[in-house]
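This part of the workshop introduces the protein records we will be handling. Getting from the letters to the tokens is the skill we practise here. The record below serves as our worked example for the rest of this section.

…
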Amino acid sequence: MNRLDEPLFSFRRPHSSARSTRPPGAFRLGIVSSVIVIGAAVFIWLMLLGPLGALFAHLSGHAIRQTLGAPGGLSPMWTSLEAAMVALTAIVLLGTPLAWLLAQGRLPFARVIEVGLLIPLLMPPLVIGLLLIYFMGPSTPIGGFLNHLHLTATNTFFALVIALIYESAPYYILGAQAAFSSVDPQLEENAALLGDSWPRVFRRITLPMAAPGLALALAIAWARAMGAFGAVVIIAYHPYGLPMAIWVTLQEQGVGAALPYAFLLLIVALPLPVLAYLWSARARAKVTGTSRVRTLNVPLPDQASLA
């Protein structure tokens, strides 16, 4: 039979003798390994989520109504939400172009800039707060300039926004840089060859493809801003946000009285990151599924068979 007459694709069941070549204990070893891996994953999952179970076990509806239903009980939540929204708006407007330029490699000394972003990310938040006092406090040149603008970087809403920016900006910028870097440059080049200007390429190609990563980076920055405490306790003790409300209630009334504020912080901080992660994973899977090209190794006829 000529090789040209053979079907290109043939599906044959593996020979029964192939099973006999498997070592006798390989199947049992695979089961044991799977059980160990699944057990370790369940243990880690329970250890990470165990504190949430402890929170719900010690929290009562009466305590929630008594703490959050009191006059001004929800004020820390509104303060945290307003400050986080202002901070993230500034971070997105200023950080997105920076992240795109870093991903494109169009900035000089890009590695130096990245190190500058990593330093606040790695510094302890308490240290950030202490350094902000010496950098933007009332007795500093920057503090004097802010004073002319009727702004103060200590114990004000503006100081709270500054603290949130310093604690959450690196998370968004570095995450956005990774999102822009994941975009296939060939698609951008093809669009540019078709006559699209770079703003149009960015709007129609780059931004939609980087959107899942950008959403995830923004959600992580949101959670970080909502839970910021180290720098806040130094330069923005007032007005109280949710982390400060937890701390003050803990100091004055004990652990049990602070649980309603902890529960409220989880309610307002966690849904956005979780939803962003689920949407990002689904969007990435859809893009990967539509753009994956499967290569089949098909034997081609040689010169002898063609003769």
Observations:
- DSSP finds 15 helices and no strands in the chain.
- The longest helix spans residues 26-58.
- Residues 6-11, 291-307 have pLDDT under 50 and may be disordered.
- The CA atoms of residues 88 and 257 lie 30 Å apart.
